[in-house]
Amino acid sequence: xxxxxxxxxxxxxxxxxxxxxxxxxxxxxxxxxxxxxxxxxxxxxxxxxxxxxxxxxxxxxxxxxxxxxxxxxxxxxxxxxxxxxxxxxxxxxxxxxxxxxxxxxxxxxxxxxxxxxxxxxxxxxxxxxxxxxxxxxxxxxxxxxxxxxxxxxxxxxxxxxxxxxxxxxxxxxxxxxxxxxxxxxxxxxxxxxxxxxxxxxxxxxxxxxxxxxxxxxxxxxxxxxxxxxxxxxxxxxxxxxxxxxxxxxxxxxxxxxxxxxxxxxxxxxxxxxxxxxxxxxxxxxxxxxxxxxxxxxxxxxxxxxxxxxxxxxxxxxxxxxxxxxxxxxxxxxxxxxxxxxxxxxxxxxxxxxxxxxxxxxxxxxxxxxxxxxxxxxxxxxxxxxxxxxxxxxxxxxxxxxxxxxxxxxxxxxxxxxxxxxxxxxxxxxxxxxxxxxxxxxxxxxxxxxxxxxxxxxxxxxxxxxxxxxxxxxxxxxxxxxxxxxxxxxxxxxxxxxxxxxxxxxxxxxxxxxxxxxxxxxxxxxxxxxxxxxxxxxxxxxxxxxxxxxxxxxxxxxxxxxxxxxxxxxxxxxxxxxxxxxxxxxxxxxxxxxxxxxxxxxxxxxxxxxxxxxxxxxxxxxxxxxxxxxxxxxxxxxxxxxxxxxxxxxxxxxxxxxxxxxxxxxxxxxxxxxxxxxxxxxxxxxxxxxxxxxxxxxxxxxxxxxxxxxxxxxxxxxxxxxxxxxxxxxxxxxxxxxxxxxxxxxxxxxxxxxxxxxxxxxxxxxxxxxxxxxxxxxxxxxxxxxxxxxxxxxxxxxxxxxxxxxxxxxxxxxxxxxxxxxxxxxxxxxxxxxxxxxxxxxxxxxxxxxxxxx
Length: 853
Prior knowledge:
By secondary structure, the chain is α+β, with helices and mostly antiparallel strands. The protein folds into 3 domains: 33-339 and 445-553, no CATH class; 614-740, Neutral/alkaline non-lysosomal ceramidase, C-terminal domain (Immunoglobulin-like); 744-851, no CATH class. Helices cover 16% and strands 28% of the residues. The chain is built from 9 helices and 41 strands. β25 and β26 (647-650) form a beta hairpin. α7 runs parallel beside α9 (537-553). The chain is globular, with a radius of gyration of 30 Å.
């Protein structure tokens, strides 16, 4: 009797539990809160820099400045110095109900395992549900360590995976995120959009000529195309003080080139430095990549200074957009979903013209029809030419990289495609892996992690100046999004879902190479060569992301991330930490007694142990050399200090940031002595250089005074066999030096006087937007002084009025301002009778002159 009563009761309880599981959870609106933070990413010096495959030994070893070999490289040239440090910049948004964390990292591309690892760490630390709510987006600099990704095919983009590099980078991203979490405060948020903001291609330009004649949308004329849009998110405190600004446009990070050995944030990072100085307090400024896949950086000047010019060209326009962008602290909802879209010949398909573009299943004996287009110009489907069991690489080239292992297709752009099976053998051979150890299909090629998020309602400034208050939708894509891809995404979101406020960020979460729409892929060129799954891969991922809007973000319900287990993540092998312990360096912090046997420097100068006692503005270079720690523990930070009375103080920028090697102001370089092998006893010689130029503003107006360089480093003290390594701090301080006025170079001819502030050949800083970092620069607001034979003087005021005092005491006035002509300032004037010398002086006291024969 008891059992007959008890069993139905248990069954009833079970039904109630199942019903409870099905009760929908609704999103709750709440007041926005935000936290921002930034930290330097912990990479060991010597780690290989990703982005250029010809840095690989097998393909040329570009970037190798000498024969050094690092403990952190396998088949790649080593990083050797720092132009600007790689940074992690975190934004944590919450409304009390849901969280959304975006971490921008100065690295080459995303890695999905890192996303899930950071999610787990943040959830453990905060107790918040973080599954699917973390985005890691990369700057795509080609000058930062790249062997943190265990995607086999991208070993060819950044060297063989290193578990220590992965863990150190992950730790930095977690640190930045948790700092943002602890700094959380009530916030006001808004967005702004500007179109055609770089009409003269001074910042970035279209680099893809193959699609110039392609017309995908009837109302759009063919021609050169770049994404003309910049959009930003403004994050203020609830009281209106700026906390952070995130802005998005597409631009490659490739100014410094494959031969560069210096870690650098490259073009995008320098837009951040310039924009940050438009504020009067330190705030978090972060660039998120847009349609950078087919956009090249531009700028003027050369080398490191060219990076600074890109920042200056961009900063005012972005700051103006920020200034015009409204914010609100009204309650908002937040929802984010992350899924791994499945990829293989059977899964990949794309909607087009009421039907579907598809591949056929792999058939080793299939002979394709080699027909790419129908008579009406639409794409012929199924695309039987892409007959690649595990995918194909290096498509789009006019000639295949090798003559064997191709798909065997004769029609362009398929004729250069290589079977991934052959690529796997190449990877194993180049990176020292056992034969047949690279699994097929490549595990990370079967999924592409992508994220969609909805936040709002937000006030959004439109390009025409109107403001709408709507939900903002964000798509984060795992690859190099191109202009046509971005346009197709926004067009489809509006046409199919009715969403007009949709914002794309590329280079996020994972990496699948270039993301293109099929029409663009099929015209060939460089960009199709890196993705694995052919012309349909990019838009297939796009459709998966749009489906996430439909399934998760367009209702008031909070949906499970992957309720039916349809989107499993890549399962990666468990890797061991390498056992390459650093060596103890008891001399760390002391001055070397001799130069290394071989020493390459990133600027054309003779190395010095200490700065000269006196350095002129612009023309002076303060050098300092010291023995540091092993690069496994030591990437020393160098700061500039000035003497205030009897106290040394850190020099800061106008926005309040420390002048250091995090910024473009100070460059550092590491030389092991001897250069190799890394596991033999070595001295680790570090060199730093600072050119006597302020961080921003008038580059010829550095305050005069006494300065020095101050080094903070780490020396290994432990006995562990794997990272993390025990270390102790050391410091080193350079000799003090005086900064004096710059010398102005003056030339005189019959009808004019020209003047310039000439930067040295080793100059690496931007001096003037109309000048040269390694040569002449205009003299701004200068005046001329003529010395007459009787000792009297005559002054020409460059503001417009020239006054000549003659020997009899009379004064003659005329309007004759100096004009910047090319890289000099030219005064159209002639010497007064009896003049024996002319002097040029600017308002900052820089001066120079020339005697008159």
